[in-house]
């Protein structure tokens, strides 16, 4: 009987079932992964043709759409190329959960066929674009285990709102990606599919909770993936893997109908869906496409905000925050934000150095809101799955979290409203178009060591949109410095000491975070594009 | 010592203070109010000049703005005329709380002067328009008692967000208007200022909680006032007084910084501010003006929705709901909605008869959300003010309301999200541009008898915008019919039996309610304008 299977049996069956969905001719020799950095293996492993390497390596999402549109590529060959590359990524980093490559290739073939039959029908905005999804999105017939044994072998019967919209816009969905048990930590490790690895350095965390997406996209097994973010779950794996990722304001991208580790009536910090990609413009294009598609028709909780298509003409004014006053950034992280600020200044941007108000208070309220039910709902799910906690979940110490009362919640709510007004005044008072700051004090860390999340979580608390822009990698010059740099607290010092050598952090990506005003996601897309072009695409950049 | 004063002493002082702010030459003889209908008294009492009668009687908010713009009227004479007429209204209906006529006239004089000095400076969109405000809005130096002794003689030190925005847009504020003790009932009666009367019939309720606004506007002592609505508090007094009133979607009109009878962290049903006026187009103009003014700069909780300025070209499709399945409309209310539906059909509108889903469940969740804290916060305010409950509050029986737990709240929240999705599908599935339905089963009732609020409250629960359009008054032909008409429940029958004769309800206004899709306030403004023109301004209408 199924009920008697242990979590290990269930995991073995799930993984075997998944692995059987990779064609034999796409299997690679494990010997190919010799070093800790496996980013080059897809190109060299012999599974991909030259043309498939070109398709997957030298195109972002907009290029793919344009080249299918111009009939340089067929939708089918694009789908095939990304399925193969995703299969290679899976074998190297364990980034996938549910695979539906054959259905995707068949859908792409159908899109090509329909186009051939009706050549005058206008193509949909995402015609033929392969898009990968975090495991929490429901697709009929597939599990959404979200890293929990309890949800294994309970296939979804309905689409979540967003995949339905993406399909209606012409996209090709082909795989779902791995997450942490509970989706509450930054290490994508669980008892169903195991741990996702970081292809830049297999000894560092891939981040989480959208860690499978981060790893897959870094491997160019996907040009555009969808993650979710309640405290940094899009941005942390974007940082760890050196890709772009955007946490939209809440209510803009449809979120309804996902598998969740929370009580369905849970109030508080809003979890949102958003894009992860190999280019900034792909994130912005995703936002534009969704906001132009009346997404509220797919999700009754979506706002009726529209993409305006208007550009800001004034000279941008950007605040820069070097640290959040709670945790000291690692030396390479300090370098990344300092270099970014300098390049923006050199390009004529009006850069003003700022300190963030009330961060500790905001962090306290946010943690309070996350744990309103004492994390009882998720603990019940773990118990129901008869599985142990993975290491990163153990470190949270769920059992020690107290339950809140309704008055506690109202006090947290009042505190949040007050600080939202404080930041509102801070933003308008400083006349900002954007803020840049580190996305975390750390880079990707060794497993289960991901530290403070105040740098990302603050923007969930405030509901401001925030985008990750990669800017480089740890260098030999990012030497370990004295402990006297980290003076905020014992916790600060403990985290800071994790940066013990450039060797441990070899090839770890660096990024900055660009933050916009709440619900001004369109304005943020514009200014993040400008920042990216100055940092990554200018001749002096 | 002030602390030893009884609530009666405090009330007497507050009322005397208020009455002293009415110039002696604006005082009328109480003998003028001979019948129950005092709507004609301002015109006949001799206080207003011919020109002041013309200014106040034959102009809506847009006319006033246009005639000041064209220098047909000065801002000062407009302010003076409305202050005088508001003073007359106050003497007949007790609709005002705080009076600041002299400051308003002085501000209008300044606006005229600045314009004369700088004739080329573009006028602000509300230049010179007098706007009245519900008592809950804070104006520095004035009390916001919201009908509670506790708040008397505690003048505000800061503006609420909306009056600040209105002043920045050029408006002239001149008075605040009466509400029920607690703002939680539909009878604007309290121990500070007493009861506001309905000028259409002094023996019927003026409604609430924005009852002072309703009465003042019906007297044409204001062309545009601002109310607030959490269950019908804009719409009920609009119905009772035969004026237009709109409950916007939440987050569109700034609400921050008001006096409140609730815990500042209270979650649940959103209370909103919105317009009340003598014309439909004034309500729409208000929404357009606010949505075009980046209102989020004034209130950090405002959405960043913009007025689009685009018209819908398709033939409108309007659902009509004759009753809500819980409460049977009075005979004149039935006539009003039936006649409205017929006129729309006759004008070529695609009208489809519908029944609302899950109303009882929605009502249950809404009441649960209103009473999360067992109404303890407001009971504490009453106790702190050492005042008794007024009759309409007594009937609520606050002490009997149980407190909810956090899990209770999460269950209510989950239920609300589910029903919001049900209505979303209902709306899209029926391909609606709007719904029309009665605003209540009753017309204005005798004092303290206002009955079911399910017809208005449902749209707060769903957060859909809803507008009141007056269509006529009770007629002799609206005869009392048999009790067999009201069969839903004992409560239904009890309410229905209140309609005991056309004489009791003489001159009671009739209205319909026009509902739009959540956050489609602009689309609703357009279609409500069309409905109003068909019902009230067409040759056959």
TrEMBL record, chains A, B:
Q: Which family does it belong to?
A: Belongs to the amidase family.
Q: By its UniProt entry, which Pfam families does this protein fall under?
A: Amidase (PF01425)
- InterPro entries annotated for this entry? Amidase_CS (IPR020556), Amidase_dom (IPR023631), AS_sf (IPR036928)
Alphabetic keyword roster: Hydrolase
| PANTHER family found in the cross-reference section | AMIDASE, AMIDASE-RELATED-RELATED
Name-wise, this protein is: amidase
Q: What transmembrane ranges does the database entry give? A: none
Q: Sorted alphabetically, which SUPFAM superfamilies does this protein's record hold?
A: Amidase signature (AS) enzymes
> Which molecular-function annotations from GO does this UniProt entry contain?
amidase activity
* Residue ranges of every copy of the Amidase domain listed in the record: 77-524
């Amino acid at each position: 009987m199924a009920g008697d299977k242990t979590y290990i049996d269930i995991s073995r069956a799930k993984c075997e079932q998944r692995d059987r969905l990779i064609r034999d001719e796409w299997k690679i020799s494990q010997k190919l992964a010799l070093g800790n950095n496996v980013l080059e293996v897809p190109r060299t492993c012999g599974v991909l043709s030259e043309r498939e390497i070109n398709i997957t390596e030298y195109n972002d999402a907009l290029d793919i759409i344009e080249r299918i549109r111009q009939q340089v590529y067929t939708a089918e060959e694009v789908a095939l190329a990304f399925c193969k590359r995703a299969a290679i990524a899976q074998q190297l980093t364990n980034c996938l959960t549910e695979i539906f490559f054959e259905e995707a290739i068949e859908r792409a073939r159908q899109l090509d066929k329909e186009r051939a039959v009706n050549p005058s029908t206008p193509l949909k905005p995402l015609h033929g674009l392969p898009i990968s999804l975090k495991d929490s999105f429901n697709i009929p017939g597939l599990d959404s285990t979200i890293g929990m044994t309890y949800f294994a072998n309970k296939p979804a019967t309905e689409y979540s709102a967003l995949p339905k919209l993406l399909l209606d816009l012409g996209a090709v969905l082909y795989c779902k990606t791995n997450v942490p048990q509970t989706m509450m930590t930054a290490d994508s490790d669980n008892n169903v599919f195991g741990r996702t690895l970081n292809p830049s350095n297999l000894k560092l965390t891939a981040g989480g909770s959208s860690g499978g997406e981060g790893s897959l996209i870094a491997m160019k097994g996907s040009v555009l993936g969808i993650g979710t973010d309640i405290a940094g779950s899009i941005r942390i794996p974007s940082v760890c893997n050196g890709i772009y990722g955007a946490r939209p304001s809440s209510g803009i991208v449809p979120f309804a109908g996902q598998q969740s580790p929370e009580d369905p009536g849970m109030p508080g910090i809003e979890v949102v869906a958003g894009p992860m990609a190999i280019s900034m413009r792909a994130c912005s294009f995703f936002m534009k496409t969704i906001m132009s598609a009346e997404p509220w028709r797919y999700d009754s909780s979506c706002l009726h905000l529209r993409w305006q298509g208007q550009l800001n003409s004034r000279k941008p004014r950007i605040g820069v925050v070097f640290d959040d006053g709670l945790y000291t950034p690692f030396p390479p992280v300090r370098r990344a934000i300092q270099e970014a600020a300098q390049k923006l200044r050199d390009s004529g941007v009006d850069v003003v150095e700022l300190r963030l108000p009330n961060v500790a208070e905001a962090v306290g309220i946010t943690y309070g809101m996350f744990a309103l039910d004492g994390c009882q709902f998720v603990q019940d799910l773990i118990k129901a799955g008869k599985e142990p906690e993975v290491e990163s979940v153990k470190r949270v110490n769920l059992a020690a979290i107290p339950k809140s009362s309704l008055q506690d919640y109202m006090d947290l709510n009042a505190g949040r409203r007050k600080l939202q007004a404080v930041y509102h005044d801070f933003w308008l008072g400083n006349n900002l178009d954007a803020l840049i700051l580190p996305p975390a004090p750390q880079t990707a860390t060794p497993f289960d060591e991901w530290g403070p999340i105040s740098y990302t979580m603050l923007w969930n608390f405030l509901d401001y949109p925030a985008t990750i822009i990669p800017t480089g990698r740890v260098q030999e010059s990012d030497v370990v410095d004295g402990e006297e740099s980290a003076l905020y607290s014992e916790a600060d010092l403990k985290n800071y000491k994790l940066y013990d050598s450039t060797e441990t952090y070899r090839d770890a990506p660096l990024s900055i975070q660009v933050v916009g005003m709440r619900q001004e996601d369109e304005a943020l897309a514009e200014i993040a594009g400008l920042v990216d072009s100055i940092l990554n695409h200018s001749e002096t950049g």
